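Review form for a predicted model. The reviewer records the input and the model, then writes brief findings.
Reviewer: anonymous (R2)
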Amino acid sequence: MNVSAIIVTFNSAKTVGDCLTALEREITAVGGEIIIYDNISRDDTAAVIKNKFPELNLHVSPRNVGFGAANNAAAALASGDYLLLANPDMVLDSGALKILLDSIREHPEAGAVVARLRNADGSFQPTCRNFPNFYNIFFSRGSVLNHRGLARKAGHTYTIDEFDQITAVPAASAACMLINRDLFLKLGGFDPRFFLFMEDTDLSLRINQAGKKIYYIPQAGAMHHWGKGSSIGAIRRSFYHHFSVWKYYLKHYPNGFSLFLLPAALTVNFFLRMVFGNDRH
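Model under review:
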């Protein structure tokens, strides 16, 4: 079997239908399966899937185990040579999955490949990034200092602009990532300590440490309703993001900055975002 597509859902009833319709078309073209792991949604997600896609493999968790752990559970059930990690608010373009599959096969050094994502209005959505460090964290997507001109002037950009050609990138979102299944399992999948957010950056780092590369494939397109795949409140979402950033630094940079300075800065940033709002880019 070529590809096992994994979709983790949580209160995703509004977007999962369009996602699965496109995904079924793409999986039919390349051969494979679709595995849906629902983190015990409180809305009609499971009912929508059962009614509209009764043939698909749906597993409902007895509790919300988090995004990373749910993907790991689904991956353990997969039989494909490759895993397509896909968000339930992502809609693949026609032929995109075949392009991703051909690309990872043509680049033996590739551990994973990612698609070019765009917003609903057609604008480019930046999902590739540099690894967090002690400087760019203050200009990251979730920072109140995230003003593109200021970040570029300081030379500490976090997100990466698009490329016209296939390009190796340090890290990427797992909103639409095709990864070698054996590599994913060898790496232990996502680190379940990250309940939500930063699990894909952590996985990207471990892919690089394993001697593999992540390639951005601009010819493979998808539309992504950023943040619409799960009805989580803004405060709760922001909390998970800030807490996961702290966990990432504690794991990879266990020093005084991560233990003392960063949590203070994250706390201030969290409350400022609650007051002034969030610029996701």
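Findings: The domain at 3-126+162-230 is CATH 3.90.550.10 (Spore Coat Polysaccharide Biosynthesis Protein SpsA; Chain A).
Further findings: DSSP finds nine helices and twelve strands in the chain.
Recommendation: see findings above.
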